[in-house]
């Protein structure tokens, strides 16, 4: 399990780097917070959290359960990532005192990231998501090597 | 006498008496139907179409002599194209909402009817109640062709939460504006979104103290103020602080603002309902645009005009409709639905609660004393396109502000001298 969760964190961080790079190259603002580190951490943690949720289905489920869990992972990733990004911004950059900041972080954030993943950078994000979840599926099905 | 009595009593007369009565009733109904004059009204009030429809419905229900058929036919530019296609044909509307830069062209081409004889019949207290600059707009060469209804000025919108977070105040000068836009720009958002519409560029030039056309009707697109305005936009764009959209890309520009990817914008006060359509996750308000000493803002909006093909009855019916629309109660309803400026003084007290709810709604009204008409030469309609294209060339990085303005001035002079 931890092997898959760790891989999901790594893939989340790599995904962040790819999205950030593509956004800069195409002039699309993709950031959730003012900090690169907070954004990267949100991507990695979202991947790890969702992988922990679905690793059982990937490793032991039938093919329908595995495919359903893979699709759920891809669909939920932007929302969980944006939610974590919003929470991080509100916590570390002092936004909990204003209703407007909270609405913006928890409503506009997920909408923005979903738009980035589908409309603005869909050609990058969707293949990336498919490759990532495929790698996670393979990793979850592979038997662990023992010494 | 006896014969008459017997004839009246005969079954023949009984039958014909009924037929004549039915025929007379039909004639009466038919005549009353003919007396109702139909007024087709083409308008561009997309963001206030429900308010227009409600007003028209109320007017039609209030009397039975005139029936108005209001049709939304697209943006001002689309309406202009459709009107030119229908010009002189049976499809031409009776009443048309002409954007104020298009209005002088319609007058110059003799496409609209003079209405002086009708407005001369208005009571003096009604005429004096109109805001003078807005009332005078419909007059050209001593004749009245346009009727005021929807007027606006450009205002500055901002994301209240973003300015609070950055610790900056809404700017009132262009120097402060530039600093504020840069302060707001981050990884997450650009400080400013600009739609390259000639009206907004005109606002920047006027607010810096310049003009696009001088008092003799000669274009001055290459003035120092125009260069300063375009250079400011160009530098903001080069620093990544400005999100630029073309003149026909206002919807993606609004979406960027709603999504918090851009935090300040210039637009008409009448665009506020467009923003409200979306579920905005932040507080938004408006205020006056930045202003240099001696600066001004251009009036916006449209004039209601009666097209040349309309009969005298249709013209009078259209005027009756406008007279009803221009009553204070109807104007108050109109302003609350559209956010346009009240064109009559007596409407303002009726809007106290509306403006008190959010003082930003009165931003355009507060600029009214600085508002001046757009250039009222027929060629300005073509100059708008020249300006739109000029901004595209500069802000898409294809040419320098100096070269673009020089080329625009050359093209504008060619239009005027054609």
Coarse shape of chain A: globular
- Share of β-strand residues of chain A: under 5%
User: How far do the termini of chain B sit from each other?
Assistant: 85 Å
Put simply, the count of helices of chain B is 20
The oligomeric state of the chains shown is heterodimer
Order of helices and strands of chain A: HHHHH
Gross CATH architecture of the largest domain in chain B: 3-Layer(aba) Sandwich
Overall form of chain B:
globular
The number of helical elements of chain A comes to 5
Q: What is the CATH topology assignment of the largest domain in chain B?
A: D-Maltodextrin-Binding Protein, domain 2
Total number of strands of chain B: 14
Instruction: Provide the domain count of chain B.
Output: 2
Can you put this structure into words, describing what you see?
The complex is a heterodimer of chains A (147) and B (418). Chain A has one domain (2-141). Chain A is 83% helix and 0% strand. Chain A has helices at residues 2-26, 36-60, 63-92, 99-120, 122-141. In chain A, helix 1 crosses helix 2 (36-60), helix 2 (36-60) runs antiparallel to helix 3 and helix 2 crosses helix 5 (122-141). Chain B is built from 20 helices and 14 strands. Chain B has helices at residues 2-9, 11-35, 49-62, 76-86, 103-108, 116-119, 124-129, 132-136, 160-166, 174-184, 198-207, 224-238, 250-258, 272-276, 312-325, 328-338, 352-357, 363-366, 380-395, 401-416, and strands at residues 37-43, 66-72, 95-99, 139-140, 143-144, 146-152, 154-159, 192-195, 242-245, 264-268, 284-287, 297-298, 300-306, 371-372. Chain B is globular, with a radius of gyration of 26 Å. The N and C termini of chain B lie far apart (85 Å). Chain A binds chain B through residues 29, 31-34, 36, 95, 98, 100-101, 103-104, 107-108, 111-112, 115, and chain B through 160-161, 164-165, 186-190, 259-261, 279, 281-283.
